[in-house]
Design a protein that fits this description.
This protein is mostly beta strands. The protein is built from 1 helix and 19 strands. Strand 10 and strand 11 form a beta hairpin. The longest helix has 17 residues. The chain is globular, with a radius of gyration of 23 Å.
Amino acid sequence: MLLVKRGLLIGIVGWLMLNAPFSNAAEPARLYQQRTLTTVQRDVSALGVQDCPSIQALDPVRLLAVCRIADAKAAARLHWLLIDAQQTGTSAIRFRSGDFGDADYLQIAVFSKAQDGAELILAESGAEFSYGVQVYTLDGMQARRVGAIPEVLNEDGEARSIVPALRIRDHGATVQFSFTAPVMVPDRQGHYAEVAPEQVCYVLKGDQLRRVTDCR
């Protein structure tokens, strides 16, 4: 009788294990890697822009250009453009970012997973010091701004690019932006305080990037 009951118990446990929901097994996070962009020489005057200090190819079709564009109300300011290299005229511009204020420079970094999913574009601006990065998703020819990461690194008392200390991981429903080194966090008055990397991170869900203050 004891052997029967024991066998019955083992059978029930086995059935429960076989019929447990798959969500109990966590999928491993996938790490985003920074892409290598190729600098290209291209005349973009036909697109209505002329002052473009940087034009880089993400692939044979998509170009990422950093350009100074003036409007009727303000002096020329930096923007970044997604350009379709197979098109001509102004229709070749598939996306144009907002301006980056009084920034003297704008640098583009692209992160992606292994050949699948939307890519991430980090647009870092600054002058004497880094202003942080604006974050965009890029799916084919569709770009969308999702938020900003104002944190910077402290290098000898100077605010420097956060990009080398970023670790970006895909968790399926979300993407997490964490840091591998202590970071400088600005307050509303522009004053910085240094915090440990596990004390702040960012989570991208859908088209919204939000800040999280406990990432352990």
